[in-house]
Each structure stands twice: as structure tokens, then as C-alpha cells.
Amino acid sequence: MVRRATETELQDLQLLVDRLQTAHTRDSVTLRFKDGRMEHGFVTFVPRLGSGRIIDVERKFSLDYNIHDLAAVDL
After folding, report:
1. DSSP letters of the chain?
2. Domain-by-domain residue ranges, the chain?
3. What CATH number should be reported for the domain whose range is 27-75?
4. Mind listing the pLDDT tens digit for each residue in 26-58?
């Protein structure tokens, strides 16, 4: 059975989507994950799939993420 999302949860997701769509034009963004991790770098985001990738060129590191794993996007 699937639980219906609350209005607050939907607003939080919409805020993350809006920030991620703005973030893909920035040089550096910080993604904060619900499990406490923080990653810095360039981001890509596909709204239709709700997923993307953060790329840290200096560390030669990239990570795929899902919007449901994010707590915040710092521009």
C-alpha cells in the first residue's frame, strides 16, 4: 500500500525541484543529504525522473542522487 504524501512534503519537494533547476547553471552547489552527507560540485537534474548527478571535478568524483534522498540544496 502506498502512503499519500502530505501537502508539506509536496511543498518541500517542489522547493527542491525549483532549487535544482536553478542550480544546474551555477559553478558550485552544495547538496545536503538526509543521511548527513554533504557534496559540493556541479549538478545535473532531470525533473521528469527526479534524479541527477553531482560532479566534483577537483576530487574526480561523481554521485548519482534521487530527489527523495536530499534534505537541502545550497546555492
Report:
1. -PPPPPHHHHHHHHHHHHHHHHHTTSS-EEEEETTS-EEEEEEEEETTTTEEEEEETTTTEEEEEEGGGEEEEE-
2. 27-75
3. 2.30.30
4. 989 999 999 999 999 999 999 999 999 999 999
